[in-house]
Design a protein that fits this description.
By secondary structure, this protein is of the alpha+beta class. Helix content is 47%, strand content 30%. It has a four-stranded antiparallel sheet, with helices on one face. A three-stranded antiparallel sheet has the order 5-6-7. Helix 1 runs antiparallel to helix 2. It is elongated. The relative contact order is 0.17.
Length: 139
């Protein structure tokens, strides 16, 4: 069991790439402002805000999910949430959109629902669920 990861977060390469794209979009905002292109300025600004928000979130909220013998720890912008195994349910949800299957890991604790995709976890949610199931069985 020691070889399994016990915390998951977006891959560092994805976060660095998001920051790089944000910087390039800000160059586009500057170019649009200097050229007087209002349409381009608005589009580049909206894209810069969206990608920058993702990059900031992925940087600040690390790791997104961690597990140990007592339970799970989920990190969100509102803080760190301790989720004991006894009151937590985990399951996979698969949805099909535009011809592609999307798999998410859902963690239900009391009245709260935490949903993690591959981008949040840095790996396939199915693999994360396997590790969580093993940890839960050992506790």
């Amino acid at each position: 069991m020691d070889n399994y990861p016990t915390s998951w977060a977006p891959r560092p390469a994805v976060v660095v790439s998001a920051w790089a794209v944000t910087a390039l979009l800000l160059v586009g905002v500057t170019a649009g402002a200097l050229a007087g292109d209002r349409g381009g300025l608005v589009l580049f600004a909206l894209a810069a805000v969206a990608v920058g928000a993702f990059a900031g979130h992925a940087t600040v909220v690390r790791p997104r999910l961690a597990a140990d013998a007592e339970g799970l720890v989920a990190r969100t912008l509102s803080g760190t949430h301790r989720l004991p195994w006894a009151r937590t349910r985990t399951r996979l949800r698969t949805t099909r959109r535009m011809g592609r299957d999307g798999v998410t890991l859902e963690i239900e604790h009391d009245e709260q629902l935490y949903v993690f995709g591959w981008l949040d976890l840095g790996e396939d949610p199915r693999d994360v669920l396997d590790v969580l199931s093993t940890l839960r069985a050992r506790s």
